[in-house]
């Protein structure tokens, strides 16, 4: 039985299954192109993958800021683990960093699915 990270489209973000993720890893892409992406003044959004790349670029930036004051590997590891455990606002909630980029969830169930999807990336091994 194939396990899935998600399926379908929620909040204008296409969900990937594990089999698709093996072919295209957006997290690795976000990490690889982080330095170049932060220098873009304008970013042409062509697909939901671009939206996810923007979100992941912000998350990487937040993670790096958390690591700034960490002097040891243990302290840095703890800071990143704690970041992954923090409450993540979903589109439409106060505190979501990109209002208007993603459509708001149409139901509590959809909000839960998009939350679990964002949490999956924040806790990606």
TrEMBL record:
It is found in: Cytoplasm, Cytoskeleton. The keyword Cytoplasm applies. InterPro entries: ARPC3, ARPC3_sf. GO terms for molecular function: actin binding. It holds the Pfam family P21-Arc. One of its GO terms (cellular component) is Arp2/3 protein complex. Keywords: Actin-binding, Cytoplasm, Cytoskeleton. One of its GO terms (biological process) is regulation of actin filament polymerization. Gene3D superfamilies: Actin-related protein 2/3 complex subunit 3. Belongs to the ARPC3 family. This is Actin-related protein 2/3 complex subunit 3. It comes from Platanthera zijinensis.
């Amino acid at each position: 039985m194939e396990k899935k990270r998600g399926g379908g489209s929620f909040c204008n973000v296409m969900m990937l299954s594990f089999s698709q993720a093996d072919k295209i890893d957006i997290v690795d892409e976000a990490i690889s192109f982080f330095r170049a992406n932060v220098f873009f003044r304008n970013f042409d959004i062509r697909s939901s993958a671009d939206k996810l790349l923007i979100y992941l670029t912000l998350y990487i930036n937040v993670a790096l800021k958390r690591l700034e004051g960490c002097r040891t590997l243990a302290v840095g590891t703890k800071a990143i683990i704690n970041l992954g455990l923090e409450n993540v606002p979903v589109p439409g909630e106060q505190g979501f960093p990109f209002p208007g980029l993603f459509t708001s969830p149409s139901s509590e169930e959809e909000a839960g699915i998009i939350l679990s999807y964002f949490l999956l990336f924040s806790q990606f091994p």
